[in-house]
Amino acid sequence: DATSFAVRVAPLGGTGLVLVLAEDQTEHRRVEAVRRDFVANISHELKTPVGALSLLAETVQDASDDPEAVRRFTDRMQTEASRLTALIQDLITLSRIQGAEPMAEPTRVDLGAVVDEALDAVRMPADANGIELVGSGAEGITVLGDEGLLGTALRNLIANAVSYSPKDTRVAVSVAVTRSTVDISVADQGIGIPQQDLERIFERFYRVDAARSRATGGTGLGLAIVKHIMTHHRGEVTVWSKEGSGSTFTLRLPRPDDRGLDAARNTDRQ
Ligand code: ADP
């Protein structure tokens, strides 16, 4: 991609001097291309379920004298409608969170409750696939942030862990406190991620295996949402993975300053 410059020339009043501003356009063009790709992706992702719904509706009409077929087709219509709902929900979350400033007024969040709720949210699909869910270390640990968003980030990681794991494996969520951070890890024994895809999986709509992602109801936005939620918390998300053995995603948050927390607690009591 060739480098290009936008040049602006402004006379400096009365001095006889001219100010020349040369601005590098390469980054602008890259950002613009990424935006165009995203919009193209959104319309493709929306058109797929809408097209399927429209075809299924026609098919149902043709099959109106066969109750068994009607049932089959309306079930598939439900699936496509759920897919559409999930996609719209993820797009709304993403547009709310991407580019948002780091949080101005975080509140104290009890990780024990966040982990329990996130595990409960995936218990049904996990049970159905014989996947054991275990949580440890979160009891009594607090961080500063937005409870709803942290719950969304953790739920996305646990849902992926369950989706990309075979039967009779385990998904473990653990919390560890280090000197300066609080780390929440989600470890699975699933299919893993090829090394060359690791740095791209946080991009919007990037999937290692599109067919597999769609089959599990994935929108392709889950990890992009996680990444933006962590940036919003001045934290980060990291991944370790080995194909065929599993993946571990870690949410790393700044450790709350204990003195700051005590001060907050004292103010609470007043
Ligand atoms: P999706 O809705 O497709 O799951 P995500 O943004 O959540 O979208 O994840 C992007 C891609 O990263 C997935 O399509 C999948 O290929 C890969 N991936 C994410 N989590 C895991 C995991 N725990 N194990 C294996 N692959 C994963």
Automatic annotation (TrEMBL):
Q: Where in the cell is it found?
A: Cell membrane
Occurrences of domain Histidine kinase (ranges): 41-257
Instruction: Determine if Membrane is one of this entry's keywords.
Output: yes
Per the UniProt entry, the Enzyme Commission number(s) are 2.7.13.3
The principal location of this protein is membrane
| Signal sequence annotation | none
Q: Which molecular-function annotation in GO is an example for this chain?
A: phosphorelay sensor kinase activity
Annotated GO biological processes are: cellular response to phosphate starvation
Which residue ranges are recorded for the region named Disordered? 246-270
Keywords, ordered alphabetically:
ATP-binding, Cell membrane, Kinase, Membrane, Nucleotide-binding, Phosphoprotein, Transferase, Two-component regulatory system
- Indicate what this protein is called per its UniProt record: Sensor-like histidine kinase SenX3
Q: In which organism is this protein found? A: Nocardiopsis flavescens
